[in-house]
# Entry
Amino acid sequence: MDEETSLLDRRPTSSESRINNSKLFLAVFSAVLGNFSFGYSLVYSSPVLPKFQGPDADPRLRMDTEQAAWFGSIYTLGAAAGGLGAMLLNDLIGRKLSIMMSAVPLTIGYMLMGGAVDLWMLHVGRFLTGVAGGMTAASIPVYISEISHKAVRGAMGSCPQITAVFGALTLYAMGLVVPWRWLAVAGGLPAVLMVVLLAFMPNSPRRLLSLNREQQAERALRWLRGQHYNTNVELSAIQHSINTQSKVTWSQLARPVYCRPIIISVVMRFLQQMTGITPILVYLEPIFSQSKVSLEPRYDAAIVGAVRLFSVAVAASLMDKAGRKALLYTSSLLMFLSSLTLTIISHTTPCLPCPTPPNHTMNWDYSSQNPIGNTLDASHQTAGLIPLISTMVFIFGYALGWGPITWLLMSEVLPLVARGVASGLCVTVSWLTAFMITHAFTHLVDWYGLYVPYLCFTVVCVLCLLFNAVCIPETRGRSLEEIENYFRTGRTFTINRSNSTAQSS
# Structure
């Protein structure tokens, strides 16, 4: 009976068929401009680090291995601080204002990097852009999930990842022709546009109802859904969800209805970072220069960025069709196979200390005068494509599942009463893990080569596969209220109003 009722619950109602999504799309676009800046600033070090380590670098800005490691990883430390700040701001001033506030540290950070005359300005500027990235990572997915209806929530939930990837690709492409100082100047422009657009967007109807602002919530929901949409049903469901919640205490967090979704979200963000995605993106050009890829590293980075954007777009189109778990299975398997290949290749290929700028002075001109050299050179060029292809497959797999779905599931499964604090906790854990692994990556490669980090990433991909099989529920086609009921009952998504009311009392 529960399954039949659940199927009926998922059928579109007459009011849902009259939804106009145009203004919802505009609100989502305004918010995810923050993710564009996040993706752009995250990989800023990839094309810039070779400039600071090359022979033409300004002596005041020249970096050794340790300084480069800090420049690459301090962003994630700032993101962890931003996640902690979002824990307070999300519930204090709301999701929308938290997103807008992220433009302040982002702008200051880019001003410091763009006008840097000393190393401390580069490091502080990169830390501040990381603070902004952590704030947006904790606030934007929650805002989008709360303004979207269940028919498009999967696709809308993929938008933060898509725009972050597009921001990274923009940085890679601009890095081919734009000096590093102007890259910093350009990075602040999307934040300005984001603030201007969000000023005209509504607050989340859920937050407005939680503040007892029923009329504002009704106006916000009608603006998001269109003038012909009947808001009563959705507002009633949101109000019921709020009424069944009470102020949660630290002792109550041990109850399964709270601890299970929080643990799932935290572990997913931990495993997401342990796959090695952040150090791979941050040190992409130096990694390619060490892997003896036959193409120039900066072009390899741009190619990988394009593949990443394509794969996230594919994931968005499949999110509400194939389901979350199926995409996570596929993602884990692709990442495992590609990281295993990279482990084998790097075990047989000696690497230079990481990160180092590409050595454009090296060549094999002697092979043009030697037939055997020509054959070896051709084989080296063919073998040099394997790390590039494997990295492309790894990025494709990550962006297909563990990239966007961890953000989406975090915003779907976290209980409403603890969502602001819990989302900040997830982002903080995620970025502390990213800082640890990004900083350690440089030294591990310096000591052992790429083999040891890639081997660790391979093991983590297996853990991702197992965690998805055992712990992650399928949330496709479920409302946020149904997902909360699943964790409350531990067995069903179907909402029984009388039972849930009895439980809350």
In short: Confidence is low (pLDDT under 50) at residues 1-12, 350-379, 495-505. DSSP finds 24 helices and no strands in the chain. Residues 314 and 400 are 7 Å apart (CA to CA).
